[in-house]
Amino acid sequence: MVYIDPKDRSRKENYQLLSSAVIPRPIAFVTSQNEDGVVNAAPYSFFNVITAEPPLISISVGRRNGKTVKDTGRNILKGKEFVVHLVDEEIVQQMNQSAAEYPSNVSEVKETGLTLTDSQIVRVPSIKEAKIRMECKLHHAVALGTEEEASCDLLIGEVVMFHIADDFYKDGKVIADGLNLVSRLGGADYARIKDTFTLQRPEMK
Asked: What is the CATH number of the domain that holds 56?
């Protein structure tokens, strides 16, 4: 057994350890919009569900030197709206390309060849090719980090509209079979969600 004290490691080393140990992680492919109308798209795998009443999800957007510098963080904190798309095999290459360091006045959606479509409730457009997307309004934002410096913005969004492709919705649930969602592992590694099994919750005897 290896014992590691995170206080003895750098931020980068702890990130590498966490991101390779907590796997697989769902990917939030997030669109946001700046004051000039440019639609930003970026992937985040520090992402998950919080609660169902109201339906809340969270994404963690990293800071640099304590400052919110990523377009996603700035846009959401100012505009209070965003859209989360789940990533499947058909759009994984475009998702990966969007992680390049594009200038703030350049839309990753256009650069990667994806298609924007109007959302139903929020002003931020959605990505048409995504089979599952969630329109969100910012519910709460929390700056987290050390006493000296915040290292991320934890952005909690309330889902105000779900979009699910017809083939993958039945009886109130998303059908995983055939959806071919992609999850994040450590480093540059990903996993395909194809091998599933079922376990019913046990009852007390």
From this structure: 2.30.110.10
- Whether 175 shows a pLDDT value over 80: the answer reads yes
pLDDT digit string, tens, across residues 129-150: 999 999 999 999 999 999 889 9
Work out how many domains the chain is built from and give that number. 1
| Among candidate residues 191, 165, 196, the one with its CA nearest the CA of residue 26 | 191
Q: How far is Cα of residue 94 from the mean position of the Cα atoms in its chain? A: 14
Is there a contact between 93 and 196 (Cβ–Cβ < 8 Å)?
A: no
Domain presence at residue 205: no
At 68, list the tokens: 């919110």
Of the candidates 61, 200, 80, which has an alpha carbon nearest to the alpha carbon of residue 137?
80
| Residue at 2 is within a domain | no
182, amino acid identity: V
Q: How long is the chain?
A: 205
